Amino acid sequence: MSSVALQGASVVVTGAARGIGFATARAFVAEGAHVFIGDLDGDLAKVAAEELGCAGGAVDVRSRASLEAFLGDVDPPLEVLVNNAGIMPAGRFVDEQDAVTDAIVDVNLNGVLRATKLVLPGMLERGSGHIVNVASYLGEVPAAGLATYCATKHAVIGFSEALRDELAGTGVSVTTVLPSAVRTDLVSGVKLGGMLPTVDPEDIARAIVGTCRSRPAIVAVPGWMRSYEAVAALLPDKMVGAIRGRLTRERVLQTLDTGARAGYDERIRRDAGPQS
Q1: How many domains does the chain have?
Q2: Is it true that the peptide bond before 121 is cis, omega within 30 degrees of 0?
Q3: Is there a domain that residue 60 lies in?
Q4: Cα 198 to Cα 183: distance, rounded to the nearest angstrom
Q5: Residue 273: its pLDDT value, please?
Q6: What is the pLDDT of residue 236?
Q7: CA 268 to each of CA 4, 50, 55, 89, 137: distance values in angstroms, whole numbers, following the listed order
Q8: Which of 7, 20, 74, 123 is the most exposed place for a label (fewest CB within 10 A)?
Q9: Alpha-carbon distance 62 to 271, whole Å?
């Protein structure tokens, strides 16, 4: 499949007012694309868009009506959709409020399904398009304290790979991007470094833009992370559990700085209301 010509192409990035989404939007703007950034925080999206010299506004990926309205303002044809919007509340699953559980599933998984379903007809009609779904390394490797988040990212990987096969030969491609820990609000209060690979939003942005050239099935950042599962399959369960404990369990359930994370968690709780 040929590469996506980004000069002048319309590109949508969700969850793009900050973090990975903002860095990705900036990277696409640098490639000459016409970028449309959406975020639940519409005011911040407009500020970010003004900074980047692109278009931006409010979109709630939990709402089909909101997505339809946002996508309706995008200059056709839409060539690239980056499903980046996501949330990551941390803590024991048994303590997780139902509204928060529902919000994680609705943003991280259903938001991807909704946006993809809305843009696919146009892409299929003209026989071209590229969809990038930002999942997570934790979609392949489980993490205690992030059970619902892991569930949604596992699902996004499965959906993306199945849809990629379904679209074979249509000119429309799907790539899944698996970031490790990224220095954004999502990991506020989590002790980084050590055995936990940690990258910057710009690293993910480069990978996302890079998928437009070769349209691979899956890209991990850093790339060597995908070897973990192959190695883990050869190790005793007890050893694998110890490694996972060092990677995530200790960081999320034992040493998490709840004070540093309070602002992010409060924003998630505030936004986790019923949507139409």
Answers
A1: 1
A2: no
A3: yes
A4: 7
A5: 63
A6: 81
A7: 35, 25, 25, 7, 22
A8: 7
A9: 11
DSSP H helix total and E strand total for the chain: 10, 9
Helix, strand, coil percentages (3-state) for the chain, rounded to 5, are 55, 15, 30
- CATH number at 192 reads 3.40.50.720
Residue 178 is assigned to a structural domain of this protein: yes
In contact, 79 and 129? CB cutoff 8 Å? yes
> Could you give the 3-state DSSP secondary structure of residue 188?
coil
- Rounded to the nearest angstrom, the gap between the alpha carbon of residue 202 and the centroid of all alpha carbons in its chain is 14
pLDDT tens digits, one per residue of 25-49: 999 999 999 999 999 999 999 999 9
CA atoms of 201 and 159, how far apart (whole Å): 24
Tell me the residue range of the domain where 244 lies: 10-271
Cβ atoms of 175 and 211 within 8 Å: the answer is yes
pTM greater than the 0.85 cutoff: yes
In a domain, 1, yes or no: no
C-beta of residue 38 within 8 angstroms of C-beta of residue 114: no
pLDDT in tens, 41-86: 999 999 999 999 999 999 999 999 999 999 999 999 999 999 999 9
pLDDT digits (tens, 9 = 90+) for 190-225: 776 666 678 999 999 999 999 999 999 999 998 777
Please report whether residue 4 resides in a domain. Answer: no
pLDDT of residue 158: 98
Percentage of the residues of the chain whose pLDDT score is greater than 90 = 68
Q: Which pair of structure tokens corresponds to residue 249? A: 């369990």
Q: What's the sign of the alpha-carbon dihedral 109, 114, 117, 119?
A: negative
